[in-house]
Design brief:
The structure is a single chain. It is built from 15 helices and 5 strands. The protein has 392 residues and is mainly alpha-helical.
Length: 392
Amino acid sequence: MSLAHTAAEYMLSDALLPDRRGSRLKGLRLELPLDKMVKFVTVGFPLLLMSLAFAQEFSSGSPISCFSPGNFSVRQAAYVDSSCWDSLAHHKLDEAGQYKVKSLWPHKALPYSLLALAVAMYLPVLLWQYAAVPALSSDLLFIISELDKSYNRSIRLVQHMLKIRQKSSDPHVFWDELEKARKERYFEFPLLERYLACKQRSHWLVATYLLRNALLLLFTSATYLYLGHFHLDVFFQEEFSCSIKTGLLHEEIHVPELIPCRLTSLSVFQIVSVSSVAIYTILVPVIIYNLTRLCRWDKRLLSIYEMLPAFDLLSRKMLGCPINDLNVILLFLRANISELISFSWLNVLCVLKDTTTQKHNIDTVVDFMTLLAGLEPSKPKHLTQHAYDEHP
């Protein structure tokens, strides 16, 4: 019998989780994988396109090429290119015979509009970083620690039950005390459950998360409007007529009223416009999917932790509307599943529980570990019958 008890003690000691206090926060993920991907694309892609636009301008020189008259000097030709790029206006005759001016400023503002887009897309990230991350990190640290501690408490409780059973000379006394403890709910540790139930009534994290994704959709819509209204109007405008009768050439009689110019960077402008529309169109369903995840519970994680004596949110049907802070925390617990050492242990115990022959007697990890340690999860039938015979 001593060998069996020693083996049970070793098994229970190995089931205890190591204390990783201090190193746990270093790998804590405070952004969901999809949110991180959206952040890198929405912020990094405009910066990449801006670099492409500046690189093309630096490598190719002037972004426009004007066809100056043949009698112009080199200085005058350079002035024409500079003046036309500064004004960047297309002059054309309308039906009434008057000149109509069409501005081509989106070509000049392209790199700066991309920079403004990257800054705008980073604002939701800053909102989440400063408004939600401090509270979320403390919540995750506490919940992860308590989940692992609750598992360890259950294992230590079984160890203590095993020692009491070994020292008890009368098995009736042990089982009577055990049934009394179960009836009085002494095996439960309600701090974690009450904390999670409290998070169901809190909406700060979920409001910040909804606002973050709503801002992303708003800025994406604004990007569509900007590209559709301004870029589309000059998308195919490669050549334009420029008025050069300004500055040094204002008093020159032989200078023509308009000279033709060509935009050498039109291809880059078109690539940037089309790729921006394509990328943000692909990201819109991802952002909407992030929002829809708040409309359903991650019950798999909760069902695994139903094995803990203090965790019965599902069995008590305490899960109501999923749009609250608890659902956001569950999403981040899923993202930090590697930090939850107890999850893999409980997952294995849930699988083994479904294969055991005494399934109806096993509700918590305490019940299952007492069975593995050689104790019945409930009072043996022969002891129950004996007690009934003594007190008919």
